[in-house]
Structure formats: C-alpha cells, structure tokens
Design brief:
Length: 368
C-alpha cells in the first residue's frame, strides 16, 4: 500500500518530452511548433514546462494574457512568446518584455500602432488573428482593407505571423466546416500577403489540427492539450502520456451506519453499513462540486472508490467499503493510471476544464 504525506500534482517532464516528440513526428522538419503554455501550462507549472520545451527545441510559445508572458520571461524563458489576447492597458509590459501581441481587431491594431510609434519602435513583431468562423476573436473579410492600409502607413510594426483557429478539428463529423475554415483562412491570408513585401509565418492548426489536417500545417502549428497528454480521441490518447498526476492522501476513515449521512446537505445517505474516507482537497483545489454524488471515482490501492455526497471546499469523501486501506494511504484522482478524460467525462465536462482547474495551493512536484 502506497503511503502519502499530502496532496500533490506530479508533473512528469519525461512524459512531456514523449508527447513533444510524437507531435513533432507528425510534422515536416521545416514546420515550426508553438507550445501553448497558458493557464499555468494547462494547470501544471508554466515555467518548468516552458524551460523543458525550450531545451527540446520548441520554436515559439503562446500564452493567453500578458502577465503569463511576463512571468515566463522572469523565469528565464527566451524564445518568442505570442500573447493571444492582449489588452491595450498592457502594451507597455508587452514591449518591455519582448512579447509578441496577437492583433485581432481594429481597436487593438489602431492602439498598438499608436503605442509603438510613440515608443519609436521599428518593425515590432505582431501576429494577425483572422476570424474564419469561430466568431470569438479575429478580423473578418470586411476588415482586411483597413488592416492593409494601416500596415502601409507605419513602420513601427511588422507582421510576423497570420493565423486563425479551428473550431472543431477534433470532430471528424465537422470536417466540412473545418475545410471551410481552411478555405476562408487561405482567402483572407491571400488578401494580406499580396500587399506585404515579405512572407509572414502562417499557422492554423491546434493539436487536433496537427493530427487530422496535415494539409493545414503551413509554416507553424500550435499545440496545447497534446503536449499534456491528450489527443481528443481515444486512439491518439493511447499514443500520448499524461504529464500531470494528481495524488492525495486518506486523512480519516469513518464507519457509517445504515441511515446515516455524509457531508453537506446530507447528499449521501448510507443504504447499508459503509466505510468512508476523507481526503484533503476540495472545490477550492479544483475538484469541483460536479464530481461529487458518485458521478466519478478515485483510485485507492488499485481499486475504484466513488466520491460521495457534496464535495466540500477543502475536503471530499469517498466510499472505501470494499477496499483494504488505511489512513495515510495514497489516493490517485487522475494521471497515468487513471485518465483525467474519464474522470471529467463522467461528470459531464472535459479534461481541459479539470486539469486547468487545479488550484495553485496544490503543491507541484516536478519529476525529471
């Protein structure tokens, strides 16, 4: 029986290397790779992940917000970092830390050009985001003339990249929509490229795009969830290795009599004599209330134990009636031995939400 001392999120850098090399194997040697390390590197440890990927030869990084890029720079990351959703109030930090802003609207373009000119920048790199049907961020076809004219009037910025984002590249039932996005991307890009005296990087594919749409790899691809061990399809998951394993410990074991309840609002009533175990993590740690009421389970000494009752802020309870276990035994919520995808799906959500929800109060342990 494995013993534990506390709740910990183990981050396996060897698994990260495996995933990186697998995804690289799907690309032409000339195609660059951008590693997406937003949201604490999908809930793990952004600095540790980025440094490992930098050592492996990653070409670019992507983050959601400026602060994430600043934190990487402060941790010694030197490769280019694309900020996918910059705000005008952070332009000073972007330039100060040599970050690359994604420009996705007339407002952002106008204000960044004004800022860059004020700071006497020359050819500061930007990436243009195009809206090809996701309808989240990006320039539409009607904006392209404005973009081209704005670029002609300034030498303060230079288009390093032009990109868009697949909406459903993991779903082959949506292949016609994805192919439509690809066509729109090519058409919109062409309108910009014909006005530029140089060739920017073109990138469209996310992880599922890498795997399902090789014709759309272009100059660079972006991968997030794939690096962390998930391929959005069972056959791809088998070829990848989960980077993060969430482990906890049994704090106390209770003998629950028939008819007694467990937890807030008495959401578990014992139908028979039951043995429950309490773990020191809850919805403040990212194991949200949706995982309670026996929707999902954890692994205790090789056996599955359902989460019972409501998940508390700092604790949750499991049913270990038929499991040989003791206080101090290790519990695995997800990882190599137990899929985060399965854990999440049973509660009606996705692995992305689960792994990125693990709060920063959970100790991270880097495994080399």
């Amino acid at each position: 029986m494995s013993k534990a001392t506390e709740t910990v999120l183990e981050i396996d850098l060897k698994a990260l290397e495996h995933n990186y090399r697998y995804l690289r194997s799907k690309l032409s040697p000339k195609t660059k790779m951008m590693g997406v390390v937003k949201a604490f590197a999908y809930g793990s440890d952004a600095a540790a992940i980025a440094k490992k990927l930098e050592n492996l030869g990653i070409d670019f990084f992507a983050v959601a917000y400026t602060k994430e890029g600043v934190d990487l720079r402060k941790n010694g990351v030197t490769k280019p970092i694309l900020v996918l959703h910059p705000q005008s109030g952070n332009f000073n930090l972007i330039v100060e830390h040599c970050l690359t802003p994604a420009i996705y609207s007339k407002y952002v373009l106008e204000h960044f050009i004004a800022f860059a000119e004020e700071k006497q920048q020359q050819n500061y790199p930007i990436h243009l985001k195009l809206n090809t049907g996701f309808n989240r961020l990006g320039f539409a076809y009607d904006d392209i003339n404005y973009v081209n004219e704005a670029l002609k009037k300034t030498k303060s910025i230079k288009v390093e990249g032009i990109y868009s984002h697949f909406a459903a590249s993991e779903d082959l039932n949506e292949r016609s929509f994805s192919m439509g996005q690809l066509e729109q991307y090519l058409n919109l890009s062409a309108e910009i490229l014909k006005e530029l005296p140089y060739k920017p990087l073109q990138h469209l594919c996310n992880t599922s795009g890498i795997l399902n749409y090789p014709e759309a790899h272009f100059d660079m691809v972006r991968t997030g969830i794939g690096l962390y061990g998930f391929g959005n399809a069972p056959e791809q998951d088998e070829k990848l290795q989960p980077v993060a394993t969430l482990k906890s410990i049994i704090s106390q074991i209770h003998a629950i009599k028939k008819g007694e309840s467990v937890g807030y609002n008495r959401q578990f009533i014992a139908e028979k004599a039951t043995k429950s175990a309490t773990l020191p993590l809850g919805h403040a740690d990212g194991i949200n209330r949706i995982y309670g009421k026996e929707k999902t389970n954890v692994l205790v000494n090789g056996k599955l134990a359902p989460i019972i009752g409501n998940v508390c802020m700092d604790m949750l309870m499991i049913d270990v009636t038929n499991i040989d276990c003791q206080e101090g035994d290790e519990v695995i919520l997800f990882g190599k031995e137990k899929s985060a995808e399965d854990f999440a799906n049973k509660a009606g959500t996705i692995s992305y939400e689960l792994i990125t929800s693990i709060s920063q109060r959970v100790k991270r342990k880097i495994i080399e």
